[in-house]
Every structure is written in C-alpha cells, then in structure tokens.
C-alpha cells in the first residue's frame, strides 16, 4: 500500500531521498501474462492516489478468498476491490472485478515488528474457475541461493510500464543477510517468519505489497516491506507462508 509504504520507509529509516533508496519500481522485471500467474490479483482502493485504483497485490487462495498484506488494510471494507486477469490495469476490457465483503486480519499481526503481515479478503463476487497456487508448507524451502519470482503491478519507475503486471527473478539471500542489517532487525525481521530476497537490480516495490513470491510453483511468501527498492544494502522483506500455512488454510476452508 502506497501511503503506508512511505510511513514504513520512514520508520525504517531516516529518509530515503537522495540515496538509491528512493528508486520506486518492481525493479528489473519483465512483462508477465495473466495466464502464467492467474492467481495474482490486484487489491484496489477507491482512495488510492493512482487512477487505476491500484493499492496492493494479492493472491487468490480460493474462488472467493484473496490473501494480501495486513498493512494494506487501513481503510473501510467498502473502499476495497479486487481485479483478476488484467495485466494492464488501464484496460477495462479484460479480467474480472469484485467488491470485498469481509476482511480477516491475522490475529498475530504486529504493526511494530511487521510480523504476520497477512490479511484475507472475501470476494463479494467469487472469481470462479481460476487456477490456484499451492501454499509452501516447508519452513526449509526458504534458503539462500534459490531463485524466486515475484509478481506485481507496483511501481516500476523507468524499468517498465506503470500499473502493469511485471515479474522479476530475485535471489533468496537467506535470513542471515537481513539479520546482518541492524535496521532490519530493529524493524522486526525474523528468520522464522520472513524471507530476505532481492538485490541492487531486482526487487519488489511500493504497490506490490501482499503479492506473490513464488518458488517451484508454490507460494513461498508475500511482499511485505523494505527500505527503498532495489537497494543492494536493503533487501526486500517478505512474509513467509510456511509458518502460517495451516492458519491461512483454515480461513479458506
Ligand atoms: N510496503 C510496500 C507496499 O506496500 C512494499 C515494499 C516492498 N519493498 C521492497 N523493497 N521489496 O507496497
């Protein structure tokens, strides 16, 4: 979520202006088609500063359930919506839209340390027949050296078109890389509940929050926070699925 991201960046640090941290983009991505990531959805909000309504990313877990980031849920339920199957958000002729009838926020969501940054939205008009993505349940799937794919419609600056589905290959840096960063530890990075990924040329960015980070066809994590975007010294931080997979599955049943 865009405004909240600014707040987070501020909490996270001083100021991002003037450093490479003020770059705003799913950095280093390429165009993705909705057929390769049909379960990737957009969470919209009528109060978004963007004409398309883009607010956050999300993942379809069931025909009527969308997983997104808890930190995106700062507005009344009636202001939210979801879009599936629309790569270019300005193209109203493709995809499906729905309103949101209910918001569940993970009871363990902690705004101070950003732990359990998960929310599940119930769609007023389910997206029936869309292929779903399996949740990763193995806590050891997150390990240094594997290559992950992140999807999102978020900020690209000059690396791609605005509000258009992009994907980027990001390296899993391993928890130690983020634990070595004092600011990240202060901001709540935890090995058991986060994934540390990205580098100076590829990363998620503002507007991608809640969207999917995929490994071997399974949902490894969702976009959560980071200082700036594609800053080699400040990786992307993701909310890891394995420790909450059972809790999330219960909400979807
Ligand atoms: N919190 C941001 C959002 O709401 C996502 C930030 C991800 N940042 C990153 N460098 N990976 O969209």
Short description:
The protein is mainly β. Helix content is 11%, strand content 30%.
- From the alpha carbons, calculate the radius of gyration and give it in angstroms: 16 Å
What share of the residues does DSSP label as strand, in percent? 25-35%
In CATH, the homologous superfamily of the largest domain goes by the name Trypsin-like serine proteases
Order of helices and strands: HEEEEEEEEEEHHEEEEH
Q: Which CATH C-level class of the largest domain is it? A: Mainly Beta
**Bound ligands, named by name, code or SMILES:** arginine
Q: How far apart lie the N and C ends?
A: 27 Å
Oligomer: single chain
Question: What do these coordinates show?
Answer:
- The chain has four helices and 14 strands.
- With 253 residues, it is mainly beta.
- The strands form two sheets. Strands 1, 8, 9, 10, 11, 12, 13 and 14 form an eight-stranded mixed beta sheet that branches. Strands 2-3-4-7-6-5 form a six-stranded antiparallel β-barrel.
- It is globular, with a radius of gyration of 16 Å.
- The two termini are 27 Å apart.
- Arginine binds next to α1 and β13.
List the helices and strands and how they pair.
Layout: H1 2-12, E1 30-31, E2 40-45, E3 54-62, E4 65-68, E5 80-84, E6 96-105, E7 119-123, E8 134-135, E9 147-152, E10 166-171, H2 175-179, H3 182-186, E11 194-197, E12 212-215, E13 218-225, E14 236-240, H4 245-252
Parallel strand pairs: 8-13
Antiparallel strand pairs: 1-10, 2-3, 2-5, 3-4, 4-7, 5-6, 6-7, 9-10, 9-12, 11-14, 12-13, 13-14
The chain binds arginine.
Arginine binds at residues 1, 4-5, 8, 56, 154, 198, 203-209, 223, 225-226, 229, 236.
